[in-house]
Amino acid sequence: VLLDDLVRDPHERAAQIVSIEDNPFGLVFHARPFLASLDRVKGTDATSLAPNSARVVSIERDFHRACALRMSVCMKPEVAQLIDIHSAAGRRFEAAGVRSFVREQGEGPTVLLLHGVPASSFLYRKVIPRLADQGLRGIAVDFPGLGLADRPLQFDYSWTGLARWLGEAVDALELDRCHLVVHDIGGPIGCEWAVRNPERVLSLTVLNTDLSPATFRRPWTMQPFSIRGIGELWLRATPKPVFAALFRHQGLGDRSAMSAAEIYVYRELLMRLDRGRAFLRIMRGFELTEEKQRLLWDGLAQRSYPARIIWGEQDPALGLDHMAGVQRVLGVDDPVLLPAKHFLQEDQAGALSYAIADQVAPLG
Fold first, then answer.
1. Which helix (H) or strand (E) holds 240?
2. Mean pLDDT of 246-267
3. Is the pTM value of this prediction over 0.85?
4. Of 191, 217, 223, 188, whose CA–CA distance to 204 is shortest?
5. How many CB atoms lie within 10 A of CB 209?
6. What is the enclosing helix (H) or strand (E) of 23?
7. What's the helix, strand, coil split of the chain in %, to 5?
């Protein structure tokens, strides 16, 4: 698209060739000078330009504002490449009017993998192929507001709303019955869906999460996001190296398991399209109530399917005290402990996949 009126003074500066790219991360604007003589470009003569000077300034201002909104996709090539690879490994689908992203691989019993925050299906990129190698179909979806999913303004980002959407997603993906794996806030969300649809759950595997919302307290790194104004500042003012340092501190037992580029993918997928506004709504949509706790406890106590707990034993955010609480809710006496922190999918993908398959495979 040739937009010479983006130039404040076309008689002194070259016109601009602007392309607008619609890629998995949203709209991206590219501009470069148009080097032909200005008198050969329609609309750049003095007669055409004279009455439009105010419009020139207005359009340029709008253009730069749009570019500012897309700063989150101005990323290092290695980060963009990782997101491209992730996107190419999955496909788009729609559930309840919201477009999302699913990554899947393998043939056999379906293992539905649910992420939490600040994550997405990218979290399971190492786990899914390993499950496929063991004769299972691993499938991970992005919750609305996260990853490559849409971030609709008119959406219920509470745990109840996300659990309701999950049910629609399971239907849209034509999953009859599945083995459910939950992590982080994917725990209460996924378990709510399981409580309401027990006939569709073959087994439950719980990774570092919390199932006692009435007494749950956010980790210090997550608490600021729940406060209006502070959350926006905390999210947008945190430099990428600080984000990476916090991620390693709480998430990785083996820091060599992830490159800096892989960690930055988490941030880019969090900020895409809306600069993290949907993520903040999710963080403020926690339902830390007695009512939600009774729903989960009573429903899970009545389940007929088996449950397993696999836990990163070094998790500074959701430690062994949280695991003990999950054990009481599920009645599981023999959790599998792995030498990992919160994101055990990253540095213990092999051991985690084996432990999931050990639970799932005999059940079919």
1. helix 240-251
2. 97
3. no
4. 191
5. 26
6. strand 15-23
7. 50, 15, 35
